[in-house]
Amino acid sequence: MPGIRLILLFLSLSATWSFGQVAERTYYRSPELEQLTLRTEGLLLNINDDHSEPVAVLEYTSPDGIIYWYRRIATEVCLTGDCRPIDVGIYWDFTGDFAGLEVFKEPLTKTDHSDFTTWDYRKLMSILKDDWSPLREYTLSELVDEKSEDGVDAVSGATKHEIAEAAVEKAVYTTHTLWHLIHVGEKEQLAKLTALRLTQNQQLEKTLQANRAKSLPFLLDMFGQGNIPQNSFTESIVLDGLAGSADPTLRAVALNALHRLDLTARGLQDRLAAVYNAKTIPERVEILTRLKPVTELSKQWYDTLSGDLDADNPWMAVKIIGTLKNSSRQSPKVVETVRKLSQSEIPVVRKAVKEFEMTQNLPNKR
Length: 366
What we know:
About 40% of the residues lie in helices and about 20% in strands. The protein is an alpha+beta fold. It folds into 3 domains: about 10-140 and about 170-185, no CATH class; about 200-260, no CATH class; about 280-365. Strands 1-5-6-7-8-9-3 form a 7-stranded antiparallel β-sheet. Strand 8 and strand 9 form a beta hairpin. It is elongated and about 85 Å long.
């Protein structure tokens, strides 16, 4: 997907809309939407569709400040030569996850022209919520097996067995069309739009308070991708995420965000030292691997790392001296340990020692 076109289009509205729609007949609205109270001031932003064409999505907010995105789509679903229109409204939450569906004009129908039943809609919703549906791997033309009749050109046959359970029965084309409208590139683009809007409106902290379980990994991911700037808030969530080792998913996304953290401020280094001290040795190595270089280390951070430096643990020592080399002053213990490491038979250790010695202008006594 090409990059998002961040084009702000403000609608002139005399009143706030509810669910983005003028009063009209709705044939279906997913249960999750019934539980939401959403309002919009009419702000439209552009993302790119599956054909790299710009399409507008409408921003909504809940009373607690959570952002939702909405797109109204009228299109045709072609079923072996018979094209039927669908008119739907699709909702995504602030992370880009599918949040709900509305159906307008007429009900969704199947290949036998029967309307979707309540059970069909229920199954459709479960399929549309699946980010990794088998439907991802198929184009519309690949949804059915082909069979030959009397030597003439192949015609459409039965739905492929491997995707039969990934679609509503007798509605594989409709299911496929909706799934691709929701999932192919939209999630990533909408997540970046949310990061943009939260930054513009200074709503990062409010979003975290409203839904910490989902927003904390989201905000860490957005910071790690460079979509949210560093400030006291983002510094805190990165360190809090690192400290929360009981949740491996949260720790992983916090580690990935660590490489974006500018550690120039010594107070921030001191806070990192406190988190580092509470970690196991493998976790400490993970932290050291992701650090951005700084020109000077705080005393607390230097002392913490030098305390871990041991010639008998060369693999960890490589990571530590890679950070310590940025300090303009080295303790006698560090210098002595580095000289012991210079005798190592491990090439990567000798390389790290050489870089340390060059930085410090230490004599090479090997």
